[in-house]
Amino acid sequence: MDPFNAWLPRLDELVEEAALSVNINGINHAVMMVTPDDLDDFAIGFLFGDGIIASNQDVHDIQITPSEQGMVLDVTIANRCLAALSQRKRRLTGATGCGICGVEAIEHALPALTPLAPLAPPAAVSLANLRERIAPWQCKARQSGALHAALALDEQGEIVACREDIGRHNALDKLIGMQLRQPVRASTLVITSRCGSELIHKAVQFGAAHLISLASPSQLAVRLALKYNLNLIHVPRFDAPVYYSHGRPSDQIGEPNVQSY
């Protein structure tokens, strides 16, 4: 160890961050700052959220190669998807802070989506101790902190999957990419980060019925969730859940301690 730096904390206890160049059929599409794991899931989720692929079947090959500056993600997609790629002239750089940085037109930032079929929000009892149940799944966050997580819940409210990343959008892309590769997809997604409009779009495009956030949503996020029939639930640290939904959970109808909009 360098004696002049002996006082510094160990770097291997900090979160890893790397530049990821995403190439699609040999053409550079984006440069992202990511936590370099589950990148195959990220590739599928990112391209799906960007409207370039419609399903996991549209991805023919994924190659991940280390480079001097970071990592290169080479994705080969179906020829029919290349037309969508040419229509989306999008270039992203360092998008850990904003999910729509570099979008050329406002209609690309806030695209029109197909409303979901209205469903009753999850029962409040299924959200009990959710924060405590999430903690064991955040393996990297327990070691280094500074990581967002996105999780999937089954019909009973039990956690079945988790993905982590230094970028909150990346974490959700990783989870959605993983879910797109499963025979049965979860209808309830959870995010530990603040809930902005772009995460609502990702959840609606994926087809989730419910999105649970541990942080309060923005006004636009709530308006979009209501517009597209996505049940948005904020689970505060101490107070009762807040349901931004056209309906109320069946086990809490008439209960004053659960807020609903």
From TrEMBL:
Keywords from the named record: Cytoplasm, Molybdenum cofactor biosynthesis
Molecular function terms, GO-annotated: sulfur carrier activity; sulfurtransferase activity
Keyword Cytoplasm: yes
Residues of the active site: 98
Keyword Protein transport: no
Compartments where located: Cytoplasm
Job of this protein: Required for formate dehydrogenase (FDH) activity. Acts as a sulfur carrier protein that transfers sulfur from IscS to the molybdenum cofactor prior to its insertion into FDH.
Protein name: Sulfur carrier protein FdhD
Native organism: Aeromonas encheleia
